[in-house]
Structure formats: structure tokens, C-alpha cells
Design a protein that fits this description.
The chain is an alpha+beta fold. Helix content is 11%, strand content 25%. Belongs to the Cyclase 1 superfamily.
């Protein structure tokens, strides 16, 4: 049976706890709106909904999450530009970070300049490819990762070629910063984001869309319905993406 989506859990863990500051409070683990208002009113955040039927596999954006080729994390990226504590009418935040930070997808323009110039950005990707049946499999690792590590479990070029030549998979996701091996990342990305068959630019069919830095710890392997919705960013070669799995 040909499965159009493949998600691989490499049992890597991205840290999601940061120190509190005025713009980014500390983060609990689940989300729930308290029944009564009080001085200790707090949101509770969660990844699992509907008694295990829906799994949020998107990482929270935090200052210490791993960043490609960096051991320093994202650093402060979110701040309040107006604050009600300073007599402003509302609290308003702004953020600044790479579109390839945290859970995100890559568009063809990430490693193909001709596609970048032609406008094959995150806004041009087909939502039918980003939403559908998916198989979650596990490739065990023996340690957690809280900063950039080039030895993460990943696809080599020959594995990427096998997927293209032997399956009809249209999307692949992993739970680290890249689906491709560190030492082969540019070549493998360029191959996977190329054309599956020859078409005009307008009808170009991407070989496989990679979704990277998924949060797959504590999610059981098996078949799911996958839903990934990237930000619509015309001109951007990638986009932060909210992904969920539904049993």
C-alpha cells in the first residue's frame, strides 16, 4: 500500500522550558482554561486532546530550542512592544526569527534558486499534500538532544532516492532540525525538493515536501491523519508550521 505521508520519530527531544521574563512567561505543559477567575489563574498547555485522539506534534517556540549549527538556542526573539502595565491600551508582541526555526517546512526555493526566483514559496504549497493519511515509524536513539547535534538520525541521499523511486510518498517529517544527514544536507534537500516528473513551472510537482522539527515523543507508532498548516508567507522559502495527528 502506497502511503502519501511518512513521519519518522527518531526519539530526539527538543527542550521546551525557558526562564520567565516580561515578554515570555514560563510555560506549563498542558493547556486548559480555568473555571474561575482568581489571582492564581494560569493556562495549562497540552499536546493530547480528545482522550488521545488528537496529538499536537508542533514544538513550542522557546529561547533554548536547538538551532541549526548553533549551541546557543534561538535567543530572545519575542518581546512586548506595548504593555498594559505601562498604560498602553493593549499588550502587543512582536517576534523575529528564521522561518526555519522550530517546527517548519521547506519550500523548493530553500535549495533551488530558480524556484525561489519563480515564486515557489511556502504560500504556493498544495494543502492536499500537507493533509492526509500518514504512517508514524520509530528509529530509536539512545539519548536526548537539547542543543544542535550533527549526529541526529536522518536520511542519507540513497534513502531519499529510494523513497522517490519506489514510493508515492509526498511528504516526510522528522523530529529533528533536518530530514537529511548533516554531511549531505544541501545535496539531499536539493534532490528531495526537485521535480518528481517534468512539468512546466506552473504545474511543477515537488518530489517530497520535508517537515522538520516535529514533536513526536510519547506518540505511538501507527497510522494517523496528518494535518500541517504553514504560515502563508509569499516570498519565503520555508514557514513555521502547526502540525497535528488524528487517530
Amino acid at each position: 500500500i502506497m502511503i502519501p505521508f511518512l513521519i519518522i520519530a527518531t526519539t530526539l527531544f527538543l527542550s521546551s522550558v525557558i526562564a520567565a521574563d516580561e515578554a515570555f512567561p514560563s510555560i506549563p505543559t498542558t493547556f486548559y482554561v480555568a473555571k474561575t477567575l482568581s489571582d492564581d489563574l494560569k493556562p495549562i498547555r497540552r499536546e493530547v486532546y480528545g482522550e488521545g485522539k488528537i496529538f499536537d506534534i508542533t514544538h513550542r517556540y522557546t529561547q533554548d530550542m536547538p538551532v541549526w549549527e548553533s549551541s546557543e538556542g534561538v535567543k530572545p526573539f519575542l518581546r512586548l512592544t506595548t504593555s498594559m502595565k505601562n498604560q498602553s491600551l493593549s499588550n502587543t508582541s512582536e517576534m523575529k526569527l528564521s522561518v526555519h526555526t522550530g517546527t517548519h517546512l521547506d519550500a523548493p526555493g530553500h535549495f533551488h534558486d530558480k524556484y525561489y526566483d519563480a515564486g515557489f514559496d511556502s504560500d504556493s504549497l498544495d494543502l492536499q499534500i500537507l493533509n492526509g493519511p500518514a504512517l508514524l515509524v520509530d528509529v530509536p536513539r539512545d539519548k536526548n538532544i537539547t542543543e544542535f547535534d550533527s549526529s541526529f538520525a536522518r536520511f542519507m541521499m540513497d534513502g531519499a532516492k529510494w523513497l522517490v523511486e519506489n514510493t508515492d510518498i509526498k511528504l516526510i517529517g522528522l523530529d529533528y532540525l533536518s530530514f537529511a544527514a548533516y554531511e549531505e544536507a544541501p545535496e539531499t534537500h536539493k534532490f528531495i525538493l526537485g521535480e518528481r516528473t517534468r512539468h512546466t513551472y506552473i504545474h511543477m510537482i515537488i518530489r517530497i515536501i520535508p517537515v522538520e522539527a516535529l514533536k513526536l515523543d510519547d506518540v505511538e507508532v501507527g497510522m494517523y491523519s496528518l494535518h500541517c498548516l504553514p504560515l502563508r508567507l509569499p516570498g519565503a522559502e520555508g514557514a513555521p508550521t502547526r502540525c497535528i495527528l488524528i487517530k
